[in-house]
C-alpha cells in the first residue's frame, strides 16, 4: 500500500511546528519504499499536490480545540475532524477543505486518510521551539505511526 505521512505546520510558530518535527523523527526510523515522508508549510489547495496518488495518507498537524489540554493526541478521520476541531490559523482553507475538494474533483485521492492532531498551547509566538507538553507529545506520535505502519 503506497502511504504518505505528511507533517503540516510553520517551523517558526512555536507549537505549530509539531507536525514537521514528527516527520523529522520518522525520517531517522522509517525506510520503506512504499512509505513517503513529507512536510510542508503550504495550505489549502496546495495540499492536493501532496495527497494525490497515494492509497493511504497520515496527516500530522497541531490543532486547537475549545477545551483541549496541550499535548493531547487525537487520532481522527476527516469526518470526525470537521465536526470536532479546527486547524490552527496558519492553515488557509485547511486540510479538510482540501480533501473534500480533491474528492469532488475526482482526483486520485487516498482511500484512507487519517489525521493525527497534537493539541497546541501556543501557535503565535515566533520561535522554533515547542512548549514542553508538545515536545513530550512529538515522540509519542512518531512511535504511534511507526507501530501502525509496521503492522500494516
Explain this structure:
The protein is of the alpha/beta class and 152 residues long. The chain has helices spanning 18-27, 48-51, 78-84, 94-104, 132-151, and strands spanning 3-8, 35-40, 56-64, 73-76, 86-87, 112-119. It has a single domain, classed as Rossmann fold (3-Layer(aba) Sandwich), CATH 3.40.50. It is built from 5 helices and 6 strands. Strands 1, 2, 3, 4, 5 and 6 form a 6-stranded mixed beta sheet that branches. β1, α1 (18-27) and β2 (35-40) form a beta-alpha-beta unit. The longest helix has 20 residues, at 132-151. The N and C termini lie close together (9 Å). Mean pLDDT is 89; it is low at 82-91.
The gist of it:
With 152 residues, the protein is α/β, with parallel strands linked by helices. Helix content is 34%, strand content 23%. Strands 1, 2, 3, 4, 5 and 6 form a six-stranded mixed beta sheet that branches.
How much of the sequence is in beta strands? 15-25%
**Total count of helical runs of at least 4 residues:** 5
Query: Looking at the chains present, what oligomeric state does this protein adopt?
Result: single chain
CATH topology: Rossmann fold
Topology:
Blueprint: E1 3-8, H1 18-27, E2 35-40, H2 48-51, E3 56-64, E4 73-76, H3 78-84, E5 86-87, H4 94-104, E6 112-119, H5 132-151
Parallel strand pairs: 1-2, 1-3, 3-6
Antiparallel strand pairs: 3-5, 4-6
Spell out the key features of this protein:
152 residues, alpha/beta, Rossmann fold, six-stranded mixed sheet, 34% helix, globular
